[in-house]
Amino acid sequence: MAFINMRDTKVKINYQKKWTPKWTMPILCWSWILFFLCGCGSYEVFKYMTEDFEMPTKIFDADINKTWQAVIKVMRGYNFENQNQEAGVIRTAWEDNTSQMNFSDSFASNDSVKTAKFRLVINVVKGSSGGKEMTKVSVYKRQLVEQDYLQGWKEVPSDGILERTLLYRINRILQIDKQLSLLEKIKEQEALKDLN
After folding, report:
1. Torsion from C-alpha of 121, 168, 52, 116, nearest 10 degrees
2. Using an 8 Å Cβ cutoff, are 162 and 142 in contact?
3. pLDDT tens across 43-65, in order?
4. Residue 144 near residue 158, CB atoms below 8 Å
5. Which residues contact residue 133 at a Cβ distance below 8 angstroms, ignoring those fewer than 6 apart?
6. Given pLDDT bands bounded at 50, 70 and 90, which one contains residue 147?
């Protein structure tokens, strides 16, 4: 308790010592240590989750029309549910891949799946770097698996192989188109030299 004596203009403070058990300090120290250890351990889980759920993306040195045409060429084997060039989105219909999921899991300890299906969502975004037009393509695969009919559909993370393969194919088409346009320019220049 603190009180002030105004007559003497001296301040007297009387503190009452509160009773604290001897074990309070060690408990507080150990709780802080556990808090920091758990905090560091959760970073590994967070790192794993961010790496696992990262959407495969690639930036191409081409304008949006050429990139869109390359994406359409690569995706011609899929049925489109939604295709909007202005929004830059392609969404495929659900495709059955039960046999592929069971084949890839045949050497794993997991049980085989009853049914599996997936859909792809591709985003094509226009951008620029240094005054040069570029495009960014992202591919997202949503994989659903049904272990048995009572549990229903469960979303599982993709292995990323299909997404990276599609981005590689888009890149190859754009590179081939670029080389063909360079060859056409060289032929035009040679034709102009022959005319002169």
Report:
1. 50
2. no
3. 555 554 555 557 899 999 999 99
4. no
5. 62, 63, 64, 126, 127
6. confident
Which is nearest to 85 in space by CA: 109, 102, 61, 68? 68
- Report CA torsion sign: 151, 156, 161, 162: positive
Residue 51: what residue type? E
Q: Per-residue pLDDT tens for 100-125?
A: 887 755 565 566 788 889 999 999 99
The predicted model scores a pTM of 0.68
DSSP state of 85: T
Cβ atoms of 160 and 51 closer than 8 Å: no
Q: What is the DSSP letter of 91?
A: E
**Residue in 102, 97, 110 with CA at minimum distance from that of residue 162:** 97
Six-digit token string for 134: 């570029």
Q: Classify domain 55-195 at the CATH superfamily level.
A: START domain (3.30.530.20)
CA Rg, the chain, in Å? 32
Residue 104, both tokens? 């890839």
Question: CB 91: neighbour CB atoms within 10 A?
Answer: 17
Cβ proximity of 137 and 90 under 8 Å:
no
pLDDT at 141: 93
